[in-house]
Amino acid sequence: SLYDSLTPTHTHSLSFDIERNAIGILNSDRGLIGIVNLVNAAPSPRVQRAASFTLLQLSTCREMASAISAVGGVPTLLNVLSNAVASNMATDEPTQTITYNAITTLANLADNASACRQAISTSGGLRTIVPLLQHTNLDIVEQAARVVSSLAVNDRKQRDALLAAGCVQSIIAVYHIPSTAVSLLRTQEQL
């Protein structure tokens, strides 16, 4: 198939008009659902990598965030990330790229729509995302921190869950926040 012939260079150098393609995908019979299904259960790592990259590109459009969530994109992405965590965060190229694409897509979704943040929370996203804060690939760690930050904004319940999950120290390490700033934040939180 076409996807099987793509090399990593081809996959990463794909450039297209996202809005035009997003409309085409939404108007097609199984377009977005098909992409989401390929992210979860592709016949090969190359197809999965290409599908995850396509979903990442689509997730940059605010309108697509809700559509991706509506067709089961959030649980699918969390499943991909859960598999990465279960494999002790494998460092082979296809797995790293797929993991990066999945966590970055989730970060885009969380940034773009409150319904997506809710879907991440109700799908057990924290259990999957918090371990990624310890990943060896700093790009993946940064995107995991982005998701966690989006979940915590203006949501006391999520902040409490994040504290209970023990991810504050990981975020501090990612962003190199001095301990005095953390103390100040805790003091302000108590006020």
Q: How would you concisely characterize the structure shown here?
A:
The protein is mostly helical and 191 residues long.
What overall form do the CA principal axes indicate? globular
**What oligomeric state do the depicted chains represent?**
single chain
Poorly predicted parts: 1-19, 179-188
List SSEs in N-to-C order.
Answer: HHHHHHHHHHHHH
Walk me through this protein's architecture:
With 191 residues, this protein is mostly helical. The chain contains 13 helices and no strands. Helix 6 runs antiparallel to helix 7 and helix 10 crosses helix 12. The N terminus is likely disordered.
Keywords for this structure?
191 residues, mainly alpha, 0% strand, globular, disordered N terminus
List the helices and strands and how they pair.
Elements: H1 8-13, H2 18-27, H3 31-41, H4 45-58, H5 62-70, H6 73-86, H7 93-112, H8 114-122, H9 125-129, H10 138-152, H11 156-165, H12 168-175, H13 179-190
